[in-house]
Design a protein that fits this description.
The protein is built from one helix and 18 strands. Strands 4-3-2-1-8-7-6-5 form an eight-stranded antiparallel β-sheet, with no helix packed on it. Strand 17 and strand 18 form a beta hairpin.
Length: about 300
């Protein structure tokens, strides 16, 4: 795990990545990174060897992207999770994601803006990893700041049909206890994440561990058995009937929010090579009788 790795910036404001894409043909560059896929996840491994452009690539063309994050109501309370599809025009880094932001002018420094919403790349703890195919961002809208991940989404047809993959990275978790936002105590904790994808079972589990924050009542949470899905050709995952939530502190199980009534979670795979996706990330919101736990996890390293 590499919590201390820092992103580096070039003079034009884009990032200098460690895993750069090689040269591609014009046909590959026009298609690179996105496009419609098949209706199933099978096929004996990745169905094609597809060249994904990194997020800051300036190769002409568009990249299909996904934005995953938390959705707030008009009062600022987290009420749901978002997984939104959009396009990134690589030459000027313009970003068009319906329901989040439409900035046809392109990135300015490390920021996109459309007049009502501002999206700013994060370069601070806990999100200090080396991100090739996605960027952690803060979305400022309606007077509230919310963490999201925006990235070059993997094609569903490129997912392996068997085996498992593990991804590691960083996590940010918030708890609002005793009343789900109406009072009581709250805390924010930063830590690590290990995301495990079981491609044979079409499931994803995310364990956020080593969580530290003032007043934290747990140091680990797990969102288990999310379901891998093909959403318009994009490789995503989301909570389902079998999705679970668990918390622990010092190795022992704890119950910080009482009886759980709702588990919402979603995420996406980003980039890829002949072995499958290279990165992954997601978000979750869990509501219980005695509070609420929500967060974002960014896994930039496939093991």
């Amino acid at each position: 795990m590499s919590l201390n790795r820092k992103r580096t910036f070039m003079n034009n404001g884009t990032r200098n990545f460690g895993r750069a894409c090689g040269a591609v043909t014009l046909l590959a560059s026009l298609a690179a990174c996105g496009g419609s896929g098949s209706d199933d996840l099978g096929g004996g491994g990745p169905n094609t060897v597809f060249t994904y452009q990194t997020f800051d690539s300036t190769v002409p063309g568009d990249s299909n992207v996904r934005a995953v994050g938390l959705d707030r109501d008009s009062g600022g309370l987290v009420v749901s999770v978002d997984n939104l599809a959009g396009l990134l025009s690589r030459q000027n880094q313009s970003l068009r994601i319906a329901g989040l932001i439409v900035d046809n002018d392109g990135i300015s420094g490390n920021q996109w803006s459309d007049g009502s919403t501002t999206v700013t790349q994060i370069n601070s703890a806990p999100f200090t990893g080396q991100y090739d195919f996605f960027v952690p961002v803060t979305v400022n809208s309606g007077g509230f700041a919310t963490p999201y991940l925006i990235g070059v989404v993997s094609r569903a047809q490129d997912l392996p049909s068997g085996g498992t993959a593990s991804f590691t990275g960083q996590s940010l978790v918030t708890a609002i206890l005793s009343g789900a936002g109406t009072g009581g105590s709250s805390f924010e904790a930063m830590g690590e994440v290990t995301l495990t994808a079981n491609f044979a079972a079409n499931t994803v589990s995310a364990v956020m561990s080593s969580l530290t924050g003032s007043g934290a009542t747990f140091d680990s949470v797990e969102i288990g058995n999310m379901v891998i899905q093909n959403s318009g050709g994009d490789a995503v995952f989301a909570s389902g009937a079998g999705t679970t939530f668990a918390a622990s502190n010092g190795g022992g199980a704890v119950d910080p929010i009482g009886t759980v009534s709702d588990i919402q979670a979603t995420g996406a795979f980003f980039g890829g090579d002949a072995q499958g996706p290279l990165e992954a990330g997601g978000t979750f919101n869990v509501v219980g009788a005695d509070g609420q736990v929500f967060g974002v996890f960014a896994a930039e390293e496939r093991n």
